[in-house]
């Protein structure tokens, strides 16, 4: 075998990887990654999160991940758990392979680290005494009706079906898609993109207490239909009333 033939034979055995850099061959940066190898935050977030949470963590249909107040309440353990396992019974799916999703544990961690690095603001709750992120005891729907009237009715209306400044918060479809924790989170951190204040600013100089938050959530939860998705029993029960 001539020296030239031997060289060509060796290159053929080595495959295209040994030819990177030769004229007409792709550079190493052009080699496509397997989906499980993608670790770029922009790609991961844009492909998996932006559709619901907004392209910059704001303006989506769900919780604003770009809201520093939310990130002050939800620690990394919360973000990792919810991203990996989803929220059963809601529109939030599981993304980790171990829970039936398509992302590796490393990719889930990269998402959480990127969210924190880009959108968290240190000391955003400085000087405040916030209620806990998760309820420590069940709320009372009866007290919640009064708390809702005091803190929420100014925007959402006395019955929660919408007012001059905000839409219905007891819509049956909405309540069927969100968990009690989602409701609690919304009461706590607000929706700045929609002009909804956090727990400190619904009534000037009177932040909601932990009990107030739990009671409002209990009242909202009591407005869910018993069997979401089923035909409404009457024309009068089209906004989330339980019959």
Q: Helix count, per DSSP?
A: 11
Task: Note the gap between the termini.
Answer: 88 Å
Stretches with pLDDT under 50, minimum 5 residues: none
CATH architecture of the largest domain: Orthogonal Bundle
Question: What is the molecular shape?
Answer: elongated
- Give the amount of beta strand, in percent: under 5%
Q: Work out the oligomeric state of the chains in this entry.
A: single chain
Quick one: CATH class of the largest domain? Mainly Alpha
Number of domains: 3
* Strands, count: 0
Structural classification: mainly alpha
Helix amount: 40-55%
Please identify which CATH superfamily of the largest domain we are dealing with.
Cytochrome c-like domain
Q: How do the SSEs run, as a string of H and E?
A: HHHHHHHHHHH
Describe this structure in words.
There is one protein chain. The chain has 243 residues and is an all-alpha fold. It has 3 domains: 1-31, no CATH class; 35-119, Orthogonal Bundle (Cytochrome Bc1 Complex, Chain D, domain 2); 141-222, Orthogonal Bundle (Cytochrome Bc1 Complex, Chain D, domain 2). Helix content is 41%, strand content 0%. It has 11 helices and no strands. It has helices at 3-14, 41-48, 50-53, 68-73, 76-85, 105-119, 141-151, 153-156, 172-177, 180-189, 210-222. The protein is elongated, with a radius of gyration of 25 Å. It starts with a helix and ends in a 21-residue tail after the last helix. The relative contact order is 0.11.
């Amino acid at each position: 075998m001539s020296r030239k033939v031997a060289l060509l034979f060796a290159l053929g055995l080595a495959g295209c990887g040994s030819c990177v850099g030769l004229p007409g061959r792709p550079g190493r940066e052009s080699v496509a990654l397997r989906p499980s190898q993608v670790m770029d935050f922009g790609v991961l977030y844009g492909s998996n999160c932006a559709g619901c949470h907004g392209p910059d963590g704001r303006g989506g249909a769900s919780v604003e991940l770009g809201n520093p107040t939310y990130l002050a309440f939800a620690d990394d353990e919360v973000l990792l758990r919810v991203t990996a396992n989803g929220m059963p019974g809601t529109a939030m799916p599981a993304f980790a392979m171990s829970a039936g999703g398509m992302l590796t544990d490393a990719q889930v961690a990269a998402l959480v680290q990127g969210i924190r690095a880009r959108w968290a603001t240190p000391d955003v709750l400085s000087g405040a005494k916030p209620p806990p992120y998760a309820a420590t005891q069940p709320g009372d729907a009866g007290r919640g009706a009064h708390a809702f009237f005091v803190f929420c009715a100014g925007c959402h209306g006395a019955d929660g079906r919408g007012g001059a400044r905000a839409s219905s918060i007891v819509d049956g479809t909405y309540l069927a898609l969100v968990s009690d924790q989602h409701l609690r989170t919304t009461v706590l951190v607000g929706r700045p993109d929609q002009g909804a204040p956090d727990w400190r600013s619904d009534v000037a100089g009177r932040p909601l207490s932990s009990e107030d938050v739990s009671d409002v959530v209990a009242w909202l939860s009591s407005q869910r239909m018993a069997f979401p998705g089923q035909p409404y029993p009457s024309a009068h029960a089209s906004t989330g009333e339980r019959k």
